[in-house]
What we know:
The protein contains two helices and three strands, in the order E-H-E-E-H. The protein has 100 residues and is of the alpha+beta class.
Amino acid sequence: MRDIYIDKVVVHMGVGESGEKLVKAENIMKTITGQISIRTIAKQTQPAFSVRKGAPIGCKVTLRGKTARDFFVTAVGILNKTVFESQFDKGGNISFGVEE
């Protein structure tokens, strides 16, 4: 049986538009993780959502080591320590969302 370890935690917040909403998301991300986020950009144009290719639409932070472990424990605690098998992929990655 393999040992379980956390290599990294990527915290991502998609806003869907640039401007004031994105700045607020970056501030929230800094408050939650304690690190400055980087902006993510749209890879393709989505006319239905008024998103153009190359436009900043979100932000993300990558945590490693003890910081990643501590953040993961806190995040799973928010979910009442309930993680389902369907949240894991074949590579052992886990994905879950937290609603506002």
